[in-house]
Each structure stands twice: as structure tokens, then as C-alpha cells.
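Example pasted here:
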Amino acid sequence: SPRECLGYRLIIKSIERVADHAARIAEIVSSLNLSRISDSLVKSISSIAEKSHAIYQDAVNSLYKLNIEQANDSIMRVKELIGMVEALAQKIFKLNLDAETITGLRLILESLKRIAEYAADIAEIVINLAIKPPR
């Protein structure tokens, strides 16, 4: 139906944007001097990246099954991830790092947050697709 086509079109656009952010993260990581960054900070960023990826995967998986509960769970987990990103960003600003490293790390965190937010967009569309309109 036209309604479903629009939903799938919006999902594809979100997936494309997620890919753009993944490429952006890869580009930034390759340009950073990682020896300046502590192992604990790398682990914190990696943990956020894993959570962002899991939220995205769950949102996409909810699409395959049109699973409203899984889609809602993905949306709720984004709020928690955003709080983690903001807390870590504040911690990074307080570290004794050069401006280029701080900027790179902040851009990585912003991209991880955006990936999760695009996952929430996908999940919202899944919910709309799963609820059949009255005839």
C-alpha cells in the first residue's frame, strides 16, 4: 500500500543515515592518536557503541517481525543511551586532552547518539506499520 511504501522509504533513509554516521566514526577513529586516550575511556566509548548497535539491531529486527513490543523497547533504551553519552561527554571535557582529540571523541559520541536516534525512528515506523489502519 502507499502507506507501507512511505514507511519503508523512511526506514531506508534512516538506515542510510546510520551508515553515514558509521563511516564518519571510522574516519574519525583513523585520524585520532589513540595513544593519548586512556583504556577506561576507550572502554566507555566502546560500551556506548555496543549499546547503540544493539538498539539499532533490535529496531531492524522488530521490522522483520513487525514486533511492537521490541520496537517500543528500542525506543525506551535510546533515552538511557543519550544520558550515558551526555555524561561521558562532560567527563571528556574535563580531561587533559588536546582540542583535536576532544573534538574527535565528542563527534564519535554524537554519531553514536544519532545512530540510536535513527533506530528509534525506525522503531516508530515499525509500530505504525504494525498497527493496521481501520477500513
About this structure: Helices lie at 2-31, 39-65, 68-94, 99-130. Residues 18 and 115 are 5 Å apart (CA to CA). The radius of gyration is 17 Å.
